[in-house]
Amino acid sequence: MSSLSATGSLPRPSATPRARAGGLPTGRLIAFSTLAMPIAASQMPLNVYLPAILAQHFGIALSTLGLVFLLAKAWGVVADPLIGVLNDRSRGGRFGRRRSCIAAGGVLLALAAMLLFFPVVRVTPVYVAVALFAFYLAWSMIQIPYLAWSAEVSGDYDERTRVATYQTVTSALSLLLVLVLPTIVDQIAPHDGRLKLGVMGGLILALLALSLPLTLKAFAERPPKAAGPRPKLGEVLRVIWGNPLLMRVLASDFAVALGQSIRGTLFVFVVTAYMGLPQWASGLFLAQFVFGLAAGPIWMRIAYRIGKHRAAVAGELAQVAINLGLLFVLPGNLPLLLGLTIAQGLAQGSGNLMLRAMVGDVADQDRLQTGQDRTALFFSVFSTSTKAAMAAAVGIALPLVAWLGFDPKSAANSPEALRGLLMVFALGPALAHLVSALLVMGFPLDARAHAVIRTQLAERDGQGADAPAA
User: Fold this and answer.
1) Ranges of CATH 1.20.1250.20 domains, the chain
2) Of 248, 185, 155, nearest to 49 (Cα)?
3) Using CB atoms within 10 A as the burial measure, which of 105, 132, 150, 180 is most buried?
């Protein structure tokens, strides 16, 4: 029997955790992490470029686009836990349940991307809706089992941080490409919407074709540990709400994503309207991503030394300080804004990286207590919390700055309206990151407690706790 209580309390072992033996091969881990690239590369076009191009170049009304994208995002929120539950209960055959779902999702994503980015018939709202619904379903079919599989390739506490770090860095690389390519197209053919769509769609398809076979061949998939009847929706909700450690991680992730999304939503407005430096908007955004690339390995090493939850707290508190520093930026003061933007890049991956790695540890605890493997379900609700936060950020930030008097169409906003814009830009993320830090402060599932869980799981399953998948 487990020494863990049903309420999520954890033991305080006297023995130190077993040291990592070997770890995952670097080459295989890089290959496995490449699938994060097409997943990440799909986010920027759908959230930033696609609505504007469909409105400006294909004549679809903004109100209609807003409804279509809202319904599509709502479908994505529903699809995540649906795929998570089904994938956890799937046997998968010889190919594996995670790999089978990812492969099928890859085929569907390629078809949906061709519909969205290479339209050969008249683009109508119905056409966009069908393509978006297929795209979000495919995205869930890839992302949810991929995140679950990421927690299963190694059960080691620190090795999971390493897996998440590699995925974070490859994601940032693909986002950098998605940011750079449209900028180049704007210099060549600024009014050619089809060209910009084709470039972004071609990048997604190329990354998918490269990464899918690499990831599927990188590691063998472990067979499911337990099987049982498929849970009903009410049972699934009780599982999620009834796990206090999972709820803390989800709430913390919601706060992280909310703060980042508020900042991202208002970033261009602040640089162009408040700072009066429209020529620097894209450059500053790129600088943040470049330094974010360098930050992943740094935070990985910090987590090795102090633990994942402490690293998350440190990173979130750093974000609080950085965002409060924005209150002191004056119009035209580029050096201070540049310095804070670089600092933001260095700190931005800490919370996302650590919290994602922590979900796998919580899933281990749940499997020890219940005998059920709910890894994909837990990662699906983790993904849902991020999407919900991104939607909430737009719903909070834009109406709030409008209420404070800011008009993005006006060339002469009042000083009070511009100051209100800066206040929301700085204080909104600062408060969100502070809440995120408080939620995981003192998190009990650290390396020592997780070592106990892995030992008990190994004894019950009859195999080595930390043996990586070959």
Assistant:
1) 231-470
2) 185
3) 150
